[in-house]
Amino acid sequence: MTSANPVALPLSAYAAQHVRLAVAGAVATITLNRPERKNPLTFESYAELANIFRAAARDKSVKATVISGEGGNFCSGGDVFEIIKPLTEMKAAGLLDFTRMTGELVKAMRAAPQPIVAAVDGVCAGAGAIIAMASDIRIGTPGAKVAFLFNRVGLGGCDKGACAILPRIVGQGRAAELLFTGRALGGEDAERWGFFNRLSTSDRLLAEAQALAAELAAGPSFGNAMTKRMLEMEWAMSVETAIEAEAVAQALCMETEDFNRAYRAFAEKRKPVFEGN
Fold it and tell me: Does the pLDDT value for residue 3 go beyond 70?
């Protein structure tokens, strides 16, 4: 009899075709790799990225993820000829299928228990800005240019959760400015506004993002997953409800062996080594 729940393959066995995927230790690195066109997305790469994050969610050996772009740019958004042109020829049903499909990428990123670190250099526009926004932590460069430019192509700024997520990162007024105008936000302003957690140089960007991801991966993975989940859930909670929800969440974390490991390490005056259980 075959199992109703087949064992999932490790993420390292995932054969990515439209992006580059590498797993080193507990950190997965996803690279958008069409540098000749500033790493635009296609129908296929959208779907593949969502599938990678879903696969990562099933792989307990992967404890943090980095997403970056090849060739000095992060992502220029949807490919003009491979996505935008076909969209102009679709009817309403097909367009809704597409917008729901692209939203699945953000859903998969937010549902993945691993912290996601975006390493952003150069152009980070349209869907690229959305991917950076949907990450948990963003490291940029002074030369980065972040643009939610949907209105500049005749669309609304309400794309893949931007009206819900972006205000929580930069504030309502600043999010409104970016979504209404589509203007580019330079790296230094992006850090000042809180979109970037910090700035790096282009030559150090990926290494710094991977080092941060490795630091997160060395932490208590159950606790990190719980933190990410509660950050998401508490958007829609009152403070009182959030406090109760966090009481339950923290009590669950206290049942883990990692919590006991931390206590023993503290008592023995050494650094804890977490194992994720």
Answer: no
